[in-house]
């Protein structure tokens, strides 16, 4: 039955009237589910012989047709059998077997920080290979590849889930009686898989073989990939704009391969940036170029430091980035943890180490350097105009010439988008999401997710990880007979940047606008848990701002950031509302629950902030979440406004192979600000691949990057986060 909501009352606040479109009222999708994305596929039409139009939607994942699933299963089984040696053959005496989904009950496991081989894990391994006595298996033959915690309600009890590699030669040398069981082991996709040799993805620095090993960079890089890296007499000059993950990894690659790289960052190094953020939190002083969005490391530095991605955790490129982080000081367990994160306190020294390495390898790093314009001649970038970001734009500017410019700005560099539009660079609006940030007491989320096991969390110091959640709901009009119309009206509402043991922070870059995000330190020891609840929006929703062309999504964001600032009353006070009042469309008149947001909250009518189609989607989703997480709707739950910068509102067109702009030669847009990434890992991977692609064009690299990093994700239009 559809849920009905009273229309939002007219706001008593002086908000600018909105001409935003009002799509059909939203109703709950019967197929919505927790922890599962009910994505709407684009229908395709074909006409049969009788003249009738038949529309069918492409089905993927769990929604595939049974016959298609069977075909895929047969294909996978054939591939696995071909990869593994025949049963009982001598070839099985070497190589590796990867065992997935090895479960150890939480009560028996040593805990989240232990990544060795325990007796309960040996028992799970013995069960997988059908070995009778677990204690006879040698620990040394096994390596933990992945460890994650699973507390889903469908399980009998919470458990740790492992992925383990078995070194066959070592196992048989130490326990010959295991041969009978290895000889009969049957490969099964996602459960038991054979590898002739172990995957050993290297960190980027070791991969390029230039890390303090005595090679002379002036004479060229040592050939480590079959003649793929070549010296060059004259170094090409490359500007990298932005020191976020994509800019840093592009600089690492280009600098190590012999380019003369200048890395320009409009903000401050992490040490000064931390002081500026402290001044914002204590004295309400916003530095427009050094804040939660701008500065060394990008917006992700003062966030949760999540290292999760949807582009493939086991992809060689992703593994290379993770191991590069470890190379520069990140904890080793990020390679094993199922949900790795660093936290701001671990990111700061990591960035300092990367900065020092870049400078030692010859990269020039300029902080406080804002790029105001591009120097363009005959459709090609020839250089940039740089000014001191503490001064007014254009004053004291300097013109610098370069052979190529890597544009690695973040999603808040709105002045850069304006500059690109003036140069007629091909850009297009991109879907993103907007909403509110919800905050609960962390103990409440622990109790909802873990029940009696919640006592084991101990503010991040216990055996059990601090509880989080990941939510995806689909809401939309389902009464139409037109499947095309249904697809257009469906919207996803999902949790974004969930920060267990974290705090709500200000991410505004303009005093007249208000937007927020969440952050956590490595221990996640705060007494609050917060997450954005956001609704997808697309170019259809940006029609009132279509006069801004490709920047329509930017203006859409600004509309609600300005409204939130007015609702909060100014001075960076955030408008807030109890969840119980938000779903009833009423102002919170009693004292609000305590909030982690340090600049203050003000009771407000957040149900009037957005157009009804966004508000109702959020309300319906919250109600659905509470059905599966009883207690989610609570008097202690507080909504904060507004969350708008979930990803870039546009995408800068580029060629898939070269990463060069389709409309301006010599410009290489990468990372989150360009619309090709969403988070630390995917941005770093994008910058790394761009570095190799550009190095190839500059004749610094003549090899095949896919031979050692695998294929890059082809991100055209839709970005996987």
UniProtKB/TrEMBL annotation:
Residues 65-80 have a biased composition (Basic and acidic residues). Residues 431-646 form the FAD-dependent protein C-terminal domain. Residues 16-43 have a biased composition (Low complexity). Residues 16-46, 62-87 are annotated as: Disordered. Residues 237-274 form the FAD-binding domain. Residues 354-423 form the FAD-dependent oxidoreductase 2 FAD-binding domain. This is FAD-binding domain-containing protein. The lineage of its organism: Eukaryota, Viridiplantae, Streptophyta, Embryophyta, Tracheophyta.
């Amino acid at each position: 039955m559809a849920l009905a909501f009273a229309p939002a009352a007219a706001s008593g606040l002086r908000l600018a009237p909105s001409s935003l479109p009002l799509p059909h009222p939203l109703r709950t999708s019967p197929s919505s589910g927790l922890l599962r994305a009910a994505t709407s596929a684009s229908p395709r039409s074909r006409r049969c012989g009788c003249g009738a139009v038949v529309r069918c939607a492409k089905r993927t994942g769990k929604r595939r047709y049974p016959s298609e699933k069977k075909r895929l299963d047969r294909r996978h089984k054939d591939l696995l059998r071909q990869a593994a040696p025949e049963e009982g053959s001598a070839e099985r005496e070497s190589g590796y077997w990867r065992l997935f989904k090895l479960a150890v009950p939480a009560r028996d496991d040593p805990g989240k920080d232990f990544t060795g081989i325990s007796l309960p894990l040996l028992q799970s391994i013995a069960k997988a290979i059908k070995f009778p006595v677990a204690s006879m298996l040698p620990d040394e033959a096994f390596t933990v590849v992945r460890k994650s915690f699973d507390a889903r309600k469908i399980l009998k009890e919470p458990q740790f889930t492992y992925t383990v590699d078995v070194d066959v030669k070592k196992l048989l040398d130490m326990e010959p009686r295991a041969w009978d069981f290895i000889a009969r082991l049957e490969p099964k996709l996602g459960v038991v898989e054979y590898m002739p040799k172990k995957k050993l993805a290297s960190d980027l620095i070791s991969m390029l073989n230039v890390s303090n090993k005595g090679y002379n960079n002036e004479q060229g890089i040592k050939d480590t990939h079959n003649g793929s890296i070549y010296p060059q007499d004259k170094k090409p000059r490359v500007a990298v704009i932005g020191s976020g993950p994509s800019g840093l990894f592009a600089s690492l690659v280009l600098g190590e391969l012999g380019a003369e790289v200048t890395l320009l960052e409009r903000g401050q190094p992490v040490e000064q940036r931390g002081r500026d953020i402290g001044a914002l939190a204590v004295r309400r002083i916003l530095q427009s170029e050094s804040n939660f969005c701008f500065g060394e490391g990008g917006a992700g530095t003062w966030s949760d430091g999540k290292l999760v991605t949807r582009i493939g955790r086991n992809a060689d490129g992703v593994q290379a980035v993770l191991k590069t982080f470890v190379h520069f000081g990140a904890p080793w367990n990020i390679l094993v943890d199922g949900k790795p994160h660093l936290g701001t306190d671990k990111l700061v020294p990591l960035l300092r180490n990367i900065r020092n390495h870049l400078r030692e390898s010859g990269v020039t790093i300029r902080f406080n350097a804002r790029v105001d314009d591009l120097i363009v001649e005959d459709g090609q970038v020839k250089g940039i105009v740089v000014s001191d970001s503490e001064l007014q734009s254009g004053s004291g500017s300097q013109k610098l010439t370069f052979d190529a410019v890597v544009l690695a700005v973040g999603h808040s560099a709105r002045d850069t988008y304006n500059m690109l539009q003036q140069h007629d660079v091909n850009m297009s609006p991109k879907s993103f999401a907007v909403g509110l940030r919800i905050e609960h007491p962390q103990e409440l989320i622990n109790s909802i997710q873990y029940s009696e096991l919640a006592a084991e969390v101990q503010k991040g110091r216990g055996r059990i990880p601090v509880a989080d959640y990941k939510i995806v709901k689909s809401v939309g009009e389902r009464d139409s007979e037109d499947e095309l119309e249904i697809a257009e009206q469906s919207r996803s509402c999902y949790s974004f940047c969930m920060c267990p043991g974290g705090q709500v922070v200000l991410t505004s870059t303009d005093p007249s606008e208000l937007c927020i995000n969440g952050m956590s330190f490595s221990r996640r020891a705060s007494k609050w848990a917060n997450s954005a609840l956001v609704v997808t929006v697309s170019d259809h929703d940006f029609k009132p701002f279509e006069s801004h062309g490709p920047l329509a999504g930017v203006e859409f964001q600004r509309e609600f950031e300005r409204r939130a600032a007015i609702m909060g009353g100014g001075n960076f006070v955030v408008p807030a509302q109890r969840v119980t009042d938000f779903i009833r469309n009423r102002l919170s008149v009693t004292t609000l629950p305590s909030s982690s947001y340090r600049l203050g909250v003000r009771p407000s009518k957040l149900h009037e902030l957005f157009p009804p189609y966004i508000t109702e989607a959020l309300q319906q989703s919250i109600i659905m979440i509470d059905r599966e997480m009883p207690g989610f709707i609570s008097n202690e739950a507080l909504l904060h406004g507004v969350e708008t910068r979930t990803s870039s509102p546009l995408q800068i067109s580029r060629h898939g192979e070269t990463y060069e702009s389709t409309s301006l030669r010599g410009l290489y847009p990468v990372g989150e600000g360009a619309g090709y990434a969403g988070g630390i890992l995917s941005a770093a991977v994008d910058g790394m691949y761009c570095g190799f692609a550009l190095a190839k064009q500059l004749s610094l690299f003549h090899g095949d990057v896919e031979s050692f990093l695998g294929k890059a994700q082809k991100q055209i239009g839709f970005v996987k986060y």
